[in-house]
TrEMBL record:
This is Glycosyl hydrolase. GO terms for molecular function: hydrolase activity. Transmembrane segments: none annotated. Pfam families: BNR. Keywords: Hydrolase. Signal peptide: none annotated. One of its GO terms (biological process) is xyloglucan metabolic process. Gene3D superfamilies: YVTN repeat-like/Quinoprotein amine dehydrogenase.
Length: 377
């Protein structure tokens, strides 16, 4: 039996949905119904999958919970799981990202605001600050983006545990080749058109929205910028624009197909000032040649006009399918590389993050079989 789990973090709670052998996803009752769930991870490295959820308690602050029974019960460390050491003088505002390491059992990375990276060595229960990034000489000069100074992307190398990349809005992409002890800005070729001519390619200060990677081609990265879509073939050493064929190069998510490293998905928005889908229509653009050409797919998506955007973490791909959630609470899925879509959920709160996985005990190779089986209603 092939069983898939879909996790949907929203402004008011976490929704889990399950599907067996291509059946429609059944959305379960909400967890954490009164709090925001800003990041989710489904850690399938062990025989028992662990679901990790970054929640925001309101005046009690952010925390990370975990469940080893697919959301039936939840646990929290007795001490604050993620917290700044006293000497930093910093206060944790939000946890933006949870990323299990593909090379180190038990290691989980957490990206946080204000602009910090944390590392767990106990499967995501407790975390410590990565001092090398916090003490980087650029950090005092980092400026927050519209959503804050958020470390929203963690890109661990799937073959070399010493290599690691992160993205901060609006500081840019940084990489480490010694496990996070030292870091360098890696934004060469990313244009910042809001700066004066002659200074539009700074060392850092780019407003990176999201970075994606394929495990079979780990040095190739795809990046959605505030003003462009880019590809790097040397783990961020240099970047090349690949967004010229798109109707707009402004957007938030960028997602790589889990088995095809040249296949990438984006969902363009009109502009920075008008953050709605281009032409008020959801169109998922796919490239099968690493960004040389793009094609739009809309079948099964709602007719225009639509007005809700899709956030940076609200689109994802795994062997379970391709999914995205909207700011007006709808979730769509595709099992054929985005060519056709089915609505899985509607009338949810504002969707902040979407993650999916095939559960370990029934994991099978392959992705999006193309059977066009119904995903929801």
């Amino acid at each position: 039996m092939r069983e898939a789990l879909l996790a949907i973090g929203t402004r008011k709670g976490l929704f889990l949905a399950r599907s067996s052998d291509g059946s429609p996803f059944a959305v379960q009752p909400v967890r954490f119904s009164t709090v925001g769930v800003h990041a989710v991870a489904i850690d399938t490295r062990g025989h028992v999958p662990r679901v990790l959820a970054a929640i925001e308690y309101g005046h009690f602050g952010p925390s990370i919970m975990w469940s080893d029974d697919l959301g039936e019960t939840w646990n929290e460390a007795q001490r604050p799981p993620v917290a700044f050491p006293d000497h930093t003088g910093a206060t944790l505002t939000r946890i933006w990202q949870i990323t299990p390491s593909p090379t180190e059992p038990g290691v989980v990375w957490a990206g946080a605001e204000p602009g910090a990276l944390f590392r767990s060595e106990d499967g995501g229960k407790t975390y410590s600050l990565v001092q090398g990034l916090w003490n980087h000489p650029h950090r005092p000069q980092w400026q927050p983006g519209g959503g804050g100074l958020c470390l929203h992307t963690v890109v661990p190398h799937p073959k070399d545990s010493a290599k690691l990349g992160i993205a901060v809005s609006a500081a840019g992409f940084y990489r480490s080749d010694d496990g996070g002890q030292t870091w360098e800005a890696a934004n060469r070729g990313i244009r910042a058109p809001f700066l004066p001519e002659g200074g539009q390619f700074p060392e850092f200060g780019q407003c990176v929205h999201k970075v994606a990677q394929h495990p079979a081609h780990p040095d190739r990265l795809y990046l959605q910028h505030h003003f462009g879509v880019y590809r790097s073939d040397d783990f961020g050493g240099t970047w090349t624009s690949i967004g010229d064929d798109l109707p707009s190069d402004f957007g938030f998510p960028v997602v790589v197909h889990p088995t095809k490293p040249d296949t990438v998905f984006v969902l363009p928005l009109e502009s920075d000032m008008d953050r709605v889908p281009v032409d008020h229509r959801y169109r998922v653009f796919r490239t099968d040649d690493a960004g040389d050409t793009w094609h739009a797919y809309t079948r099964g998506l709602p007719e225009p006009p639509v007005h809700a955007s899709v956030l940076r973490d609200a689109m994802s791909a795994s062997p379970a399918g391709l999914f995205f959630g909207t700011r007006d609470g709808e979730v769509y899925g595709s099992r054929d590389d985005g060519e056709t879509w089915t609505r899985i959920a509607r009338h949810l709160p504002d969707v902040l993050t979407v993650r999916s996985a095939i559960l370990p005990s029934v994991r099978e190779p392959g992705f999006m079989s193309g059977t066009n089986q119904r995903m929801g209603s």
